[in-house]
Amino acid sequence: MAQFTALRSRIVSLPVNDIDTDQIIPARFLKATDKQGMGDHLFADWRYNPDGSPKADFILNRKEGQGAQILLAGDNFGCGSSREHAPWALTAFGFRAVISTSFADIFRNNALKNGLLPIVVDEATHQMLFDLAAEVPDAELSVDLASQTLAFPHGSVTFPIDPFNKTCLLNGVDELGYLMGFEKDIAAFEARQA
Amino acid sequence: MPKTLFDKIWDSHVVAEGPDSPAVLYIDLHLVHEVTSPQAFDGLRRRRLKVRRADKTLATIDHSIPTTPLDVPIGDALAAAQIKQMETNAAEFGITLHGMNSPHRGIVHVIGPELGRTQPGMTIVCGDSHTATHGAFGALAFGVGTSEVEHVLATQCLLQRKPRTFEVRVDGKLSKGVSAKDIILALIAKIGIGGGTGHVFEYTGEAIRGLTMEERMTICNMSIEGGARAGLVAPDQVTLEYLHGREFAPAGPAWDRAVARWTRLPTDEGAVYDRSMTLDASALEPMITYGTNPGMGMKITDRVPMPESLKDASQKAALEKALAYMGLRPGQSLLGHKVDVVFIGSCTNSRISDLRLAASVLKGRRVSEGTRVLIVPGSQDVKKQAEQEGLDQVFKQAGAEWREAGCSMCIAMNGDQLQPGQYAVSTSNRNFEGRQGKGGRTFLASPLTAAAAAIQGRITDVRTML
Fold it and tell me: Is residue A61 part of a domain?
């Protein structure tokens, strides 16, 4: 799995609540049998005109959207379907972290397996970051996973993360490899169940 | 210590658990479909792994399959390739697949229960968020991503943190014209689409006990729309009657042993849930959504809310954005609103009882001119049953399209989709922007309300037609 330790980046601000996975990547792009090209479909229906040309006013098509690795989104990000295509599309576009007040359960699990860090902040910090993005579009944030710190120009906050997920991200641990280490326990469980 | 139904299932499936690591949870049944599995099978190939328990794995084709007659070749090359890949993967890894020509093919959450594979006390996963459906049997069932599909294929286990429990008690009795779909839409309207995040619902109370298995499946199915990955109903006599005699249900002495086990599953007297809430079924009316998530729902006789009535600025903005997408005005009634398409189907409402309800309204009537009505059975077995009962004739005589089984216009991957700007009344589970086709606008409702809209060509209170 992709390792995550720290990053410093501008933010892409998408102040919309309840961004569902159908918005992150519409279902018509789920017919692929591999993971290629997902970044082109990220937020497709918000990002492109019906003729396929980019919508000039959508943030990913503006200067602020280029090269930023942190997405700042409204409450309850990633609700809806279980499609892992959502974090695939976000990471293929270049995002390494998403900041919100809350994440849907399945999306959070999927994100963590793809080196995409879901950062939960309180409402006041959330609002302050949206204000910052509006007032200083090229402001940079720093994320340090080891200390669980999100730093902005005038301060910093700490954010929660499951200790197991933290270890996996910091070390790029392969969860399937870890799980396969329980082979004896699994076989014993099956023997008891039979 | 008294335990909840959830605790009992969870505790009996923990293979290993360390103090700082998630539980290794054993999975009894893994359902697989063509859309979220190809990259997982690729992962197995790269690592030279086998499917650990093919006998606990069942595959079908549902999301991208056309619902047009089976002898018509699949026009969409990508969909055809994805379906072919599912066939290749099932053959290579030795998994049972209900493919194109199987008489039991259908939506994964319809066929699991129908075949008797879904049983009380099990852990069930699938790369699909509506796996919550199977909770109707008192099974812990939830959706997972493709990485986790690979984990389960390889190890039959998942790494999981224990979720919290949330009792949703539904007291009282439903009135005429009000159905299971209205219960779940009312719950989600009340708690919001993130209201159950981090929790597993257990639906209890008189109204739930009074529901059939298919109605319980409708409710559990949409648990995820309330943010809960899973929803449970304790098994009872209704569950046993549904399961007895199904192809993969235990039989003979094994049935008696299973029943003894299942009888111990319901939540113990005095067990504590992390959260609880109560709904009064007798106060419910037919529900309809007005916005772009399933929590934006109301009684069909209500008026669309006013953004200025919301205190929170981001919620106000969300409502304004939703109404702009939907082309609706604050304060308007939806009754009489034009409907271009009616879709009756999906893992929420495509079972035989749903079709019977729709037929009860459509029988002897004609679909409104200018309204397209698609009726898509959840499985080929449901289709066969409906045809034996003559429901297909009722639908065709009314002017509706009677299709082959699949997810169809719920997710609009297979060519069944809305055109930009069209309005649909849909018995499916999501009204997200573009969910049923780019630019399409969805009103979620029950099969009865959908059938009423089909006849009138407008949003209608079905109680005026019963």
Answer: yes
Here the tokens at position A100 are 């919100």
Domain count across chain A? 1
The overall average pLDDT reported for chain B is 97
Q: Inspect the interface and report whether the beta carbons of A82 and B64 lie closer than 8 Å.
A: no
Tokens, residue B196: 């159950």
The model's pLDDT over B126-166, given as tens digits with 9 standing for 90+, comes to 999 999 999 999 999 999 999 999 999 999 999 999 999 99
Q: Give the CA distances from residue A177 to residues A4, B44, B154, B396, in Å, rounded to whole numbers and listed in that order.
A: 18, 12, 10, 54
pLDDT tens digit string along B393-417?
A: 999 999 999 999 999 999 999 999 9
Chosen for mutation from A19, A47, A123, A176 (greatest number of chain B CBs closer than 10 Å) is A176
Residue A183 lies in a domain: yes
Quick check: B81 and A33 CB within 8 A? yes
Give a yes or no: residue A1 inside a domain.
no
Cβ within 8 Å, pair A26-B434: yes
The SS3 assignment for B462 reads: helix
Its pTM stands at: 0.98
Taking CA–CA distances from B159, the nearest residue in chain A reads A179
In chain B, residues 378-417 whose CB comes closer than 8 Å to chain A: 411-413
Tokens of B345: 């189907």
Type of residue at B117: R
Query: Is the Cβ–Cβ distance between B169 and B204 less than 8 Å?
Result: yes
Q: Quick check: B307 contacting A, CB < 8 Å?
A: no
Contact assignment for B151 to A176 by CB distance below 8 Å: yes
CA distances from B314 to A74, A79, B80, B355, B433 (A): 8, 16, 42, 39, 18
State the helix-helix crossing angle for B213-221 and B352-362, rounded to 10 degrees.
Answer: 100
CB contact under 8 A, B129 and A180: no
Backbone φ and ψ of B40, nearest 5°: -70, -45
The CATH number of the domain holding residue A138 is 3.20.19.10
Nearest to B288 by CA among B308, B304, B310: B304
| A and B: number of Cβ contacts within 8 A | 178
ipTM of model: 0.97
Domain extent for A145: 6-193
Cβ–Cβ below 8 Å for B15 and A182: yes
